[in-house]
Amino acid sequence: MDIKENIDLTHRKLLADQFHQLNLGISDYTFANVYLFRNVHRYEILKKDCGVFISAYNRQGQNYIMPLANLQLCSPDILKGLLDSENFFFPIPEEWLSCFPEKTFRLTHDDSESDYIYLTKNMASFAGKTYTRHRNHLNQFYSRYRPEGLPMGGANIDDAMKVLRRWQEESVLAEGKTDFAVCGEALRHFQELALWGTIYYIENEPAGFIIGEPLNAGMFCLHFAKASKRYHGIYEFMFNDTAKQLEPQYRYLNLEEDMGNGNLRRTKTSYGPEKILKKYRISLVC
Predict the structure, then answer these.
(1) 102 and 225, same structural domain?
(2) Domain limits at 163?
(3) What pTM value is reported for the model?
(4) What is the pLDDT of residue 1?
């Protein structure tokens, strides 16, 4: 019997355990991501005999299914039964493609949905020609400011909210068109979502923060980076400092997708990604 459930904080252990067992480097596969974007994507848990799936909708209103189950335990009939002529499985890593025979399933991918993966040591050093502009901005930042970073949590969550509100005020987009609400919820449920972050102060004023979480033993995902435009070079500083903190434990940083945003694509490309991690769509052959 199929069971459908809306996602809330009570599902954290169930879903976090599922994501841990999958051991993927794809940014979508974390409880924090699913919980924070549960309303945006209308996430719903589907429990099948062979495991757990999540039904969701993308920004174009298309329905897709996230497998959290071991697909080798799922019969082709169950997989086919989850799909119709319009929806698809997503995001599917390359290592799962063998579970979908070509005669039955069709695979595609959209570059705007791919994750940007960086070597942590490169972001921590900013060495080489690729980072010339970022290194210059970082040096200019250090010539003007003496930042202080503190672990995120507890009393400084209110200071992070001040940064987020200032960031939104400086944005050219209305609040409903940014991730202001989602990031605010991440701050309010910071501990419950098992997130990690650093908040940065300049002259005792909260100036910026970064929030993320581990994806697996070797990769860390950065979900949110927010700061005020008044501090030139602060983003270079925050990425560089975060990489220095994470380098001893994580070889890679995942900065998620660009969502087809040209400015975001240029920015993420400028940091010299080590690889672009494709996320495949799997649909039925018509």
Answers:
(1) no
(2) 115-256
(3) 0.94
(4) 47
